[in-house]
Amino acid sequence: MEGQDEVSAREQHFHSQVRESTICFLLFAVLYIVSYFIITRYKRKSDEQEDEDAIVNRISLFLSTFTLAVSAGAVLLLPFSIISNEILLSFPQNYYIQWLNGSLIHGLWNLASLFSNLCLFVLMPFAFFFLESEGFAGLKRGIRARILETLVMLILLALLILGIVWVALALIDNDAASMESLYDLWDFYLPYLYSCISLMGCLLLLLCTPVGLSRMFTVMGQLLVKPTILEDLDEQIYIITLEEEAIQRRLNGLSSSVEHNITELEQELDNVKILKTKLERRKKASAWERNLVYPAVMVLLLIETSISVLLVACNILCLLVDETAMPKGTRGPGIGNASLSAFGFVGAALEIILIFYLMVSSVVGFYSLRFFGNFIPKKDDTTMTKIIGNCVSILVLSSALPVMSRTLGLHKLHLSDTSRDPETTKPSANGHQKAL
Predict the structure, then answer these.
(1) Separation of alpha carbons 362 and 365, rounded Å
(2) What is the C-alpha separation between 367 and 378, in angstroms, rounded?
(3) What pLDDT is stored for residue 63 in this prediction?
(4) CB within 8 A of 394, min separation 6: which ones?
(5) Closest CA to 74 of 422, 394, 430, 416
(6) For residue range 263-289, what is the model confidence (pLDDT) as tens digits?
């Protein structure tokens, strides 16, 4: 009987691992396909040529797509964990959701952390150096020569970063244990580097999110059709049409030798055409779109911003008053043990909406900063170098989103390994359980 029980337990564990691997693969495949269509929408079409550079661009495109898919997974995992917790509480004995357990969610978080490290420290540096490489002088030109140069640059970059960290530890913490811990790259060095990247991402989020919250109203105002109050669109379209015709006549009258004036007039003509297109879109919009959608979206943005600021203010007040409210002092429930909100499923849905809203606001604020303004992708006119920079930036922001959400008190979910194997639920070597 004991042997049969052992075989049955091993079979259940095997089937569970296969099921979790299949689910992870399907979810990532969907994210990869969506990310591929997003990147190809903005990628410059002139790069699509059948030569050596085209192969390099194609490889860099696949690596960038992989990174963007990992970023999307890192953003979606936190709402997925929250909604999974509420589903498990609502249907604890339902046969059709037995696959949705703590072991699956814990595995997804481990894969997200692993792939984020892989993208940040291996794939994206490789894609950038591979895109800029030409091969060492004296070697035969080709893909192999460019791969060799890229690998050499990656090794030199890794040695440089390792040396900088080693010198910094020697200056700050001159301890033999700290030096020896650098030899353990997998358990110490890479998680430490990823923690530093997450810290930088949190600082960037704290800088970008307030800017994004204020810019969201302007961005939505540009995307939506504003109500036409005391405006005559027909008259404005007539005036802009006359202005367009006047600029066109001036262009036809100038000789080709006056290049400076022609360039200025062509730029002015493009601006006039853009303004005319916006006016025509406002004219064609229905009354529902003009008078209902725009005010409703603006009110919704105002409510979400107010709730976000109120939650953050309440959490800061709790941190100042109650020491146990600190993230390190909390011991919240795990997956499927208790609801994360006093309002149940409605409160969890509100938290998910706020998390998405903060992420979108941080991205809008990131592109609104003057230093990162040149990173804004343009449709069918974005180079692969700029795409790589955008993918890395979004990955850094997405990796810091769970940390910032927990610090600001938007959720209190603790993710520990809740697999059925009791050996996997023991604390790790450093005495802490993995927590979200």
Answers:
(1) 5
(2) 12
(3) 92
(4) 68, 71, 363
(5) 394
(6) 777 777 777 877 777 777 777 777 677
- Three-state secondary structure of the chain: CHHHHHHHHHHHHHHHHHHHHHHHHHHHHHHHHHHHHHHHHHECHHHCCCCHHHHHHHHHHHHHHHHHHHHHHHHHHHHHHHHHHHHHHHCCCCHHHCCCCHHHHHHHHHHHHHHHHHHHHHHHHHHHHHHHCCCCCCCCCCHHHHHHHHHHHHHHHHHHHHHHHHHHHHHHCCCHHHHHHCCCHHHHHHHHHHHHHHHHHHHHHHHHHHHHHHHHHHHHHHHCCCCCCCCCHHHHHHHHHHHHHHHHHHHHHCCCCCHHHHHHHHHHHHHHHHHHHHHHHHHHCCHHHHHHHHHHHHHHHHHHHHHHHHHHHHHHHHHHHCHHHCHHHCCCCCCCCCCCCCCCHHHHHHHHHHHHHHHHHHHHHHHHCCCCHHHCCCCCCECHHHHHHHHHHHHHHHHHHHHHHHHCCCCCCCCCCCCCCHHHHCCCCCCCCCCC
Distance, in Å, from the CA atom of 69 to the CA atom of 395, rounded to the nearest integer, reads 9
In sign, the C-alpha dihedral spanning 307, 394, 363, 192 is: positive
pLDDT at 119 over 70: yes
